[in-house]
Design a protein that fits this description.
The structure holds two protein chains of two kinds.
Chain A: E1 2-4, E2 16-18, E3 20-21, H1 29-40, E4 72-73, H2 84-90, H3 92-101, H4 106-120, H5 126-142, H6 147-150, H7 153-171, E5 203-205, H8 230-241, H9 244-249, H10 274-286, H11 295-313, H12 320-336, H13 344-355, H14 365-376, H15 391-402, E6 415-420, H16 424-438, E7 444-446, E8 459-464, H17 469-477, H18 484-498, H19 503-515, H20 519-535, H21 539-559, H22 563-580, H23 589-608, H24 617-630, H25 634-646, H26 652-661, H27 667-670, H28 673-683, H29 686-690, H30 692-705, H31 708-723, H32 727-740, H33 746-750, H34 756-776
Parallel strand pairs in A: 3-4
Antiparallel strand pairs in A: 1-2, 1-5, 6-8, 7-8
Chain B: H1 19-22, H2 24-32, H3 46-54, E1 60-64, E2 67-71, H4 81-91, E3 96-101, H5 107-119, E4 125-127, H6 134-137, E5 139-141, H7 143-149, E6 156-158, H8 160-167, E7 170-174, H9 181-184, H10 186-193, E8 195-197, E9 206-208, E10 214-220, H11 231-236, E11 237-242, H12 248-265, H13 274-289, H14 307-324, H15 331-342, H16 348-365, H17 369-381
Parallel strand pairs in B: 3-10, 3-11, 4-7, 7-10
Antiparallel strand pairs in B: 1-2, 5-6, 8-9
Helix pairs in contact in B: 2-3, 3-4, 3-5, 12-13, 12-14, 13-14, 14-15, 15-17, 16-17
The chains are: A mainly alpha, B alpha/beta.
Chain lengths: ~775, ~375
């Protein structure tokens, strides 16, 4: 995590923060170099330019919403520092070579030229491999034009050169006594370049080791420098590792072939694959490929068997004969394409040829999914405890294990968890997950519905998914406390202080503290909520508080909490909300919709009577009646009238009469009839249908009475009002309109005589009646 | 009276020669320069078969009748070369090959060229229909002679499959999914055991396939559901899906090359110029996808607008121009012949074409003379 002063930031006093990941897989060259160095006692020095040195400062004119600090993976910032492979692909040398050789992708070219060359003995020594690669890189670099000048490669190389020179000087070493592991492209950096490298911006950087996953380092995850098949290459790597004879034969050489594996610069993450051992065991039973076969053949057999078994698990009918046909096909394809052993491209083609019976994207969908899964893998790495962990990270992993949730950290897959809160384990898991939500730890992908309705009173459904940001966020939250509980509590207290006078927010925190099982905070929050409810005069805030408290009351039944205290708070919030209704009569248009939602929830609370001591319904109806008289905004007048009708304080016919009154009013008043109707429809549904006949008559009168200009003005709001209704409700109104105009509606139409003459006559009658009605219409 | 001499059968002019005759020079050149060992009974190695189908960058320099000549190896199949590689490898393996795709995507064309290059004979063909019988797949008898002499090897009429088995060659099975399932299943034992039993001949009751024998079948993906292959038969085939040509450049190249060949065959001295081909390929590609290159969308017709259909339009336009026009093929000739290609069974396609003309072609006609000519002629034809 990097805190960089003076770079893109939402405000001058807030330093910008950029998280950057440098993922490693077991076969990443950097990781192999580190391990080999540790084995021989060599010192390791990182020479690449830190990624944040290439982050461009923000331009002063940039709007605030563009100043979000981006999350970036080291190789992903194409604009600032492209991977050398991206440069290589654009070089004219590579393009001409790929065309001549028939390579369809960079990966295919790389595997054919270098990966397979290593395992099949095309390069007898590592020096041969190195020389071959150096020639290739020299040709690529010479034909890359000015791309390295534009994409940040040159500043990186300046930094590398400086780091190498300084490193050698500080240790008084001759160049021959050190070894540089870098992308082949950088072998040819300009050693006479006198320009200094860029200085990284000042700031504080924090580094930690976190788990990473195969999926995250794959191209499928959108990682620019991604590996196209991390799990497949892991299999190849393991096969190379199982060749002790070959290793012994070449013991005199400077490094084993595996040390120069693919993607010299590709960041990757250490990962373990539990399923791998199982597949290998199967392979050993079968005997695998002949001992003198290239390791890629063994890897292919293992991979194909893995793909087909995944496909079978998903319901595909793959047989052992398919596996045999596929491996034979892949080997023949490799031979046809001039490769010593099958590359991944040959295996993919062979799988599609032998196992897909039709169009790959249709009939072969299951196969393609199995191929992608087997190529990418789902393993997630684990950080060794020997490295030491921040207390909160340690606590997080301990709790995951204790609560039997560790599975989510073992696979890069979604995990759906249903918790029964009556069960102790379920309650503890729930509290833990609620605490993670509070800390914004992105392990929780979806939390239970916030409303706490009946279906989730005793049961919670969670979706969990691991991401590398989990550890990063935990590291961030370490500032709040050493454990998840302590950090959640500290964060909650910070939030309480920030919005102490907001009744809704404070009641929400109270509810969260109960869900998180933080009893010490619950008591404090109860007092804070009481004070906030007493002080807050905002209608919406009080309604929010009431909703939270009603949910809490239901939780209290299940968790054996003190219901009277909650009921007391709810009564306070309810009363204050009712008192605040009088302020809503002149509400501006932009606040109306939100307020209507709160008014409806308040009305529901008034009639529900769920609390130990029911809420005073009369207080609500009185407040609405008074507000209806005092309201000046037509929309709110309609809303209050609608509410009163819904609560049966007024008759639906009375509501219709209020609409009808607009028909005889002054045109200036008539034009706001639509707003009144819109307000009424926003809160009322049942009562409208009960008085639908009267309402249809009233609206009809209104529309008939309205002169053209007034009609056009009120029309949009009338339409808006009807659009609030459900389709079935609209149809019910349409039936009433049809009945009013003497059109029989659905039943009558269904009775159309079946003979064509009779039907024609009947339709002609209907037509004539409609025409007569329309004749009376004035427009 | 002078007697008219009948031409020798081999020198008779034929409307369409099989690929191995038409491209014999290329096949001979590839065989002469073949550096690899071909599989048993194959005329060429897999690499040379691939070169024959996808062409080579440079002509092959070979000796014919003692003289060194350069033989260009032309591309026969336009599309993904990896498909061809997969097809060749399949034919060298245990499994048979089934080419699946929309009508007009070149399945039979590829099948013919593969058979020509691999076994030097593309004419051992079974045409699958609803009336195809098991006899046509295995063998039949000369009934008259059987009545007179009883079943003898001489009285047996071998099927193309049996002939291919005897020579280690390839048999082509066109439109396999048009055959009823019982008949299709006759292939199961042929593909598994690589032999045909002839129980009527006690002394010669088995015909074993020689190495190299295999089957190339084709199936129209629109008909696949009609008589879908049984699971047992599916297992014995590798399916290769031939997609409709997606990119403009390739489609223009296909239409150009195939039209030229066909015009030569029909001896029509006409040439399709590049602007004409461009308009034709653009119309087909856009109508097939229901979207123009600049993102305007419109309904797609129900007809399959394959590249073969585009070639048909080009040929019709050339014939029309030759016999009823000036001889030069213009965009207007294409437009006139396009209507019948697009509007076949479904009259709704007429509306689709009208919409394309109104929304796309008319807009382009304001800036481009070719499109103006196309639009006017198509509207007139409609």
């Amino acid at each position: 995590m990097l805190g960089l002063a003076g770079v893109a930031s939402p405000a001058p006093d807030i330093p910008a923060r950029f998280p950057v990941w440098y993922p490693l897989l077991p076969y990443s060259p950097e990781y192999v170099a580190i391990r080999e160095a540790a084995a021989i006692g060599a010192e390791v020095v990182f020479i690449d330019l830190p990624h944040h040195a290439l982050i461009e400062p923000a331009t002063p004119a940039a709007p605030a919403d563009e100043l979000e600090a981006p999350e970036d993976e080291a190789g992903q910032a194409e604009a600032t520092a492209a991977s050398w492979e991206a440069i290589a692909v654009e070089s004219s040398f590579y393009q001409a070579m790929a065309k001549a050789a028939g390579y369809r992708s960079w990966d295919e070219a790389w595997d054919s030229m270098f990966e397979l060359g290593l395992s099949s003995g095309r390069h007898a020594t590592h020096e041969e491999f190195r020389r071959d690669l150096a020639h290739f890189c020299a040709a690529v670099r010479a034909t890359s034009g000015d791309r390295p000048q534009r994409d940040g490669t040159i500043p990186r190389e300046r930094h590398m050169l400086q780091a190498i020179r300084r490193g050698l000087a500080a240790r008084r070493l001759a160049p021959a006594e050190a070894m540089v592991v870098c992308g082949g492209f950088h072998l040819f950096l300009d050693r006479d370049d006198a320009e200094p490298p860029p200085e990284p911006p000042k700031g504080t950087s924090f580094a930690t080791v976190v788990p990473y996953s195969y999926f995250r380092v794959s191209e499928l995850a959108g990682y620019g420098a991604g590996n196209r098949a991390p799990k497949y290459y892991q299999t190849v790597w393991e096969q190379l590792d199982r060749r002790p004879a070959a290793k012994k034969k070449k013991a005199d050489e400077p490094a084993s072939p595996k040390k120069k594996t693919r993607k010299p610069e590709a960041p990757a993450g250490e990962a373990t694959e539990g399923g791998g051992a199982q597949v290998v065991a199967t392979d050993k039973r079968r005997g695998g490929a002949a001992p003198d076969e290239p390791p890629h053949v063994d890897a292919m057999i293992e991979h194909v068997s893995h793909v087909l078994s995944r496909g079978r698990r998903a319901g595909e009918m793959f047989t052992a004969a398919d596996a045999i046909a596929t491996t034979q096909h892949a080997r023949m394809l490799a031979a046809l394409r001039g490769r010593p052993a099958p590359a991944l491209d040959d295996i993919r083609d062979a799988l599609i040829s032998c196992c897909c019976k039709g169009r790959p994207e249709e009939e072969g969908r299951g196969l393609l999914r199995a191929m992608a899964e087997a190529e990418v893998g789902t393993a997630i790495g684990r950080v060794t405890p020997a490295l030491g962990r921040l207390p909160i990270v340690h606590d997080f992993h301990e709790q995951l294990d204790a609560l039997d949730l560790g599975e989510v950290m073992g696979r890069d897959k979604r995990m759906h968890v249903t918790l029964d809160l009556r069960d102790d384990a379920g309650a503890r898991r729930s509290a833990f997950l609620h605490r993670l939500v509070k800390l914004a730890v992105p392990l929780v992908e979806s939390a239970p519905a916030a409303t706490g309705d009946g279906t989730t009173l005793f049961r919670e459904k969670w979706t969990l998914a691991w991401s590398p940001a989990v550890d990063a966020q935990l590291v961030e939250k370490n500032l709040y406390g050493d454990t998840i509980e302590a950090a959640a509590m500290a964060q909650l207290e910070e939030e309480i202080a920030a919005d102490a006078r907001h009744a809704g927010a404070t009641a929400g925190r109270l509810r969260a503290s109960v869900a998180m099982q933080l009893p010490r905070v619950v008591q404090r929050l109860e007092a804070a909520a009481r004070a906030a409810i007493d002080e807050d005069r905002r209608f919406n805030s009080q309604c929010e508080a009431l909703v939270h408290l009603l949910v809490l009351d239901r939780l209290a039944i299940q968790r054996d909490l003190g219901r009277p205290a909650i009921a007391d708070l709810a009564h306070r919030a309810y009363t204050r909300a009712c008192l605040a209704i009088g302020d809503l009569g002149a509400l501006p248009a932009d606040q109306q919709e939100e307020t209507i939602g709160h008014l409806k929830s308040l009305a529901e609370a008034a009639v529900a009577g769920d609390l130990v001591e029911p809420l005073d319904r009369a207080a609500f109806t009185d407040a609405v009646t008074s507000a209806a008289l005092a309201a000046t905004v037509p929309f709110m007048q309609g809303a209050f009238a609608g509410l009163l009708a819904e609560l049966k304080v007024i008759d639906p016919a009375d509501l219709a009469a209020r609409v009808g009154a607009f028909a005889t009013s002054h045109p200036a008043r008539m034009v706001v009839a639509g707003e009144f109707l819109d307000g009424a429809f926003a809160v009322s549904k049942t009562s409208l249908l009960l008085g639908a006949d009267a309402l249809v008559s009233a609206i009809d009168e209104l529309l008939r009475a309205a002169p053209w200009d007034e009609f056009m003005t009120l029309l949009p709001k009338v339409r808006n009002a009807f659009e609030r209704l459900h389709e079935r409700q609209r149809l019910a109104f349409a039936d009433r309109v049809a009945a009013r105009y003497g059109l029989a509606g659905g039943e009558a139409i269904a009775e159309v005589p079946v003979t064509s003459d009779g039907a024609a006559a009947y339709l002609a009658t209907l037509d004539a009646r409609v025409a007569a009605i329309m004749k009376d219409w004035s427009f | 009276m002078a007697k008219t001499k009948e031409p020798e059968p081999s020198k008779q002019e034929v409307l369409r020669e099989p690929a191995e005759v038409q491209y014999r020079a290329q096949l001979a050149a590839l065989a002469q320069r073949d550096a690899d060992t071909p599989p048993a009974s194959w005329k060429l190695s897999p690499r040379s078969v691939l070169a024959y189908v996808v062409g080579t960058a440079k002509p092959l320099s070979v000796k014919i009748d003692g003289k060194t000549v350069d033989v260009p190896i032309t591309r026969k199949f336009f599309g993904d070369d990896a498909l061809v590689e997969r097809a060749i490898v399949t034919l060298a393996s245990e499994r048979a090959l089934l080419l699946v795709g929309e009508p007009g995507t070149g399945k039979s064309w590829l099948s013919e060229h593969l058979a020509a290059a691999i076994s030097g004979c593309s004419t051992l063909t079974i045409q699958g229909t609803a009336g195809t019988t098991e006899d046509q797949i295995k063998y039949a008898w000369n009934i008259a002679r059987v009545i007179a002499e009883g079943p003898r090897p001489d009285n047996l009429i071998p099927s193309p499959t049996m002939l291919a088995m005897r020579t280690g060659g390839l048999v082509r099975f066109e439109e396999i999914t048009r055959c009823v399932p019982d008949v299709q299943d006759a292939l199961v034992s042929i593909l598994s055991d690589k032999n045909i039993a002839v129980p009527e001949l006690p002394d010669a009751n088995m015909v074993f396939a020689r190495p190299g024998f295999n089957i190339i079948a084709t199936a129209n993906s629109r008909d696949q559901g009609v008589n879908e292959l049984s699971a047992a038969l599916k297992r014995r085939f590798n399916y290769i899906h031939i997609p409709v040509v997606g990119d403009h450049k390739t489609e223009v190249a296909i239409v150009r090359d195939r039209s030229r060949e066909l015009l030569e065959r029909y001896k029509i001295p006409a040439r399709l110029e590049e602007p004409v081909l461009n308009v034709l390929a653009t119309v087909f590609r856009e109508m097939r996808s229901g979207m123009t290159t600049d993102g305007t969308s419109f309904p797609k017709p129900s007809t399959t607008l394959s590249t073969a259909e585009a070639i048909g339009v080009a040929l019709d336009a050339a014939i029309h121009a030759r016999y009823f026009g000036s001889g030069a093929v213009g965009v207007a000739d294409i437009a006139r012949n396009l209507v019948g290609s697009i509007v076949k069974e479904d009259l709704g396609d007429l509306q689709v074409l009208k919409e394309y003309l109104a929304v796309v072609a008319k807009k382009r006609s304001a800036k481009d003379a070719s499109w103006k000519e196309f639009h006017e002629a198509a509207v007139k034809a409609l």
